[in-house]
Amino acid sequence: RNPSVAAIAQAEARLSALRMQLNPHFLFNTLNAVSSLLLDKRTEDADAMLGRLARFLRFALEVLPDDETTLEDEIAAQRLYLEIEQIRFEERLQIAFDVEAGCLPALVPTLILQPLLENAVKYGVSRSTRPVHVRVCARRIDANRLELCVTDDGGGIAHPVSSGGGVGLANVAARLRTIYGAEGMLDSGPMEGGGFIARIVLPFVTVSEAAES
Predict the structure, then answer these.
(1) pLDDT, tens digit, for every residue of 153-162?
(2) Which of 76, 107, 138, 186 could bridge 173 with an S-S bond, Cβ 3.0-4.6 Å?
(3) Beta strands in the chain (DSSP E)
(4) What is the number of other CB atoms lying within 10 angstroms of the CB of residue 64?
(5) If DSSP codes are grouped into helix, strand and coil, which group holds residue 49?
(6) What would the pLDDT profile of 177-188 be if each residue is shown by its tens digit?
(7) What's the pTM?
(8) Are 194 and 156 in contact (CB under 8 A)?
(9) Helix, strand or coil for residue 94?
(10) Main-chain phi, psi angles of 95, to 5 degrees
């Protein structure tokens, strides 16, 4: 067997395993939230949450585990996720997006922001009694690199490297290494003045550029 083919197959299998960790973890949390809403007789909120969940899962099921998608579609999917969480936390979760328009055609791994946002919600929002601002940023560092950031102004120091469900920042770092090698990186930690930041750097490649290569 050709070693290069074997290496590609191994990388694809690793990516599939990493991605397969996501959906059960997310579904468990969301369905628990729906159950709680129904017990509290918040049926309209439960219905809205299920509607957004259906749209989010439609996106997740339309792509292969190791696919890339445009940042525009990734942002749209994560808006759905954050809207689901906003039903749970109401005014405690404040959402902002700061995305340079020129970044929207860039290719990114599907649902790469999901664990970062789950981390921010779980350790920044859920453990705070005050409103917490979760912000998603995207910009070009230079002609060849894209930067994605997720920040929250919650407690900061409570964030672990990986979430308790096994899907977290370590998962994102592993996916980036598998796809991009040394060109993909993740760094994270408490911010000066409070809060937490997770920052991804990866090659800036658009759909048209990928098609030409």
Answers:
(1) 987 555 554 4
(2) 186
(3) 68-70, 93-99, 107-109, 132-142, 145-152, 185-190, 196-203
(4) 11
(5) helix
(6) 988 999 999 999
(7) 0.79
(8) yes
(9) strand
(10) -115, 140
